[in-house]
Amino acid sequence: MDLQTATDHIEIRQEVAKLCAKFPGEYWRKLDAERAYPTAFVTALTEAGYLAALIPEEFGGAGLTLSAAAAILETVQAEGCNGAACHAQMYIMGTILRHGSPAQKTQYLPKIATGELRLQAFGVTEPTSGTDTTSLRTFARRDGDHYVVNGQKVWTSRAEHSDLMLLLARTTPKDQVGKRTEGLSTFIVDMRESLGKGLTIRPIRTMMNHNSTEVFFDNMIVPAENLLGVEGRGFRYILDGMNAERLLIAAECIGDAKWFLRKATDYARERQVFGRPIGQNQGIQFPLARAYAQMRAAELMVHEGLRKFENGETPGEEANIAKMLAAEASWAAGEACIQTHGGFGFAEEYDIERKFRETRLYQVAPISTNLILSYVAEHVLGLPRSY
Ligand SMILES: Cc1cc2nc3c(=O)[nH]c(=O)nc-3n(C[C@H](O)[C@H](O)[C@H](O)COP(=O)(O)OP(=O)(O)OC[C@H]3O[C@@H](n4cnc5c(N)ncnc54)[C@H](O)[C@@H]3O)c2cc1C
């Protein structure tokens, strides 16, 4: 069963699916067991130009639209692969594109487009402040022609497999700014330069293969020329990229949901118990039909967000709702897929339990469902801010 419900970017979807076919379940299973990085897969995506989809042609990228990028990531997930190893590169570079100086864009974007430089690491979350980003404590103190950075990040994914990190740090203490969103700045950290010289990276073993780390800064030197945009406005720069990020993550969840539903419906048609296919039982059909309905509704919201984004509008409402609904739909599809497979859903060789673990993340990261509901309550429904 195809389950291809989207009608846009068909050629891109077909080409990405062909590439993904070279990385079947066994490939991901082996990496999962070893908690290893999918270098060959990321190299293949990079060489095919997919990770540079959003980099404009003048900087060596494909100059595609956000909906094309969403089609790429959705297909990666729908084919059973895992874009979490590299998806951030697609959207983090947007901060350099929007707020970098001409010299920074020329220096970094063409090399990111070819894969010579990997921009996979995004250092925002800290252990003490968590979701309360403006309370983060990592501090970058200006000292002549450089900044001296001290502090700690947590959940900095892919830091060991990235050359550059986009770092959010305080440059003015919170009690000395008018608004708590001020006094935060964004830097490009060249981790190749800093590793062992004030930068320490420690992997965190998680329930799925995500290559996440904690990162420590101990008097790490960052040249002042690596500051992005204007000092103190970094929080705004990060916010500017969030709608695109949420829509892309939502597209990945749609892909996961399609993978689960295809796998489950194929199995439900074939598996005979009590002399008939299990898919003939409404107890098997209904959770799958419900998950499909959830996926379709979420998919429409993703497309509406993409349409607004590409129209130059700010799809805050759509991007947030799409991310929440899509993460819930992929989880519902995963749950129905496991149940449909009975005991076999737990066997590693079916890949279901792996995808089940992988897709659970998106109800927590990059933003948790509660915070999306808070956004909708405050910014869409006009209710008082709750935190
Ligand atoms: C595998 C993985 C990869 C990640 N990768 C990255 C990365 O590359 N870069 C990065 O910067 N971060 C990354 N993150 C961090 C992720 O964005 C955070 O985990 C997430 O934003 C939640 O923050 P927290 O874990 O500190 O939870 P907390 O902020 O401690 O929240 C805990 C719970 O309380 C809820 N909560 C908190 N405040 C409120 C409130 N006011 N109202 C209602 N509920 C509330 C939250 O919704 C959550 O359910 C990653 C996380 C994981 C697990």
Task: Report what the structure shows.
The chain is of the alpha+beta class. It has 3 domains: 10-114, Orthogonal Bundle (Butyryl-Coa Dehydrogenase, subunit A, domain 1); 119-235, Butyryl-CoA Dehydrogenase, subunit A, domain 2 (Beta Barrel); 239-380, Butyryl-CoA Dehydrogenase, subunit A, domain 3 (Up-down Bundle). Helices cover 48% and strands 15% of the residues. The protein has helices at 10-21, 25-34, 39-47, 66-78, 87-99, 102-114, 191-194, 234-240, 242-270, 282-310, 316-341, 352-360, 369-380; strands at 119-123, 139-143, 146-154, 164-170, 184-190, 199-204, 212-223, 227-228, 272-273, 276-277. The chain has a 4-stranded mixed beta sheet. Helix 5 runs antiparallel to helix 6, helix 9 (242-270) runs antiparallel to helix 10 and helix 11 (316-341) runs antiparallel to helix 13 (369-380). The chain is globular and about 80 Å long. It starts with 9 loop residues before the first helix and ends in a 7-residue tail after the last helix. It binds flavin-adenine dinucleotide. Residues 122-125, 130-131, 155-157, 206, 210, 212, 361, 364-368, 370-371, 374, 386-387 line the site of flavin-adenine dinucleotide (FAD). Flavin-adenine dinucleotide binds next to strand 1 and helix 13.
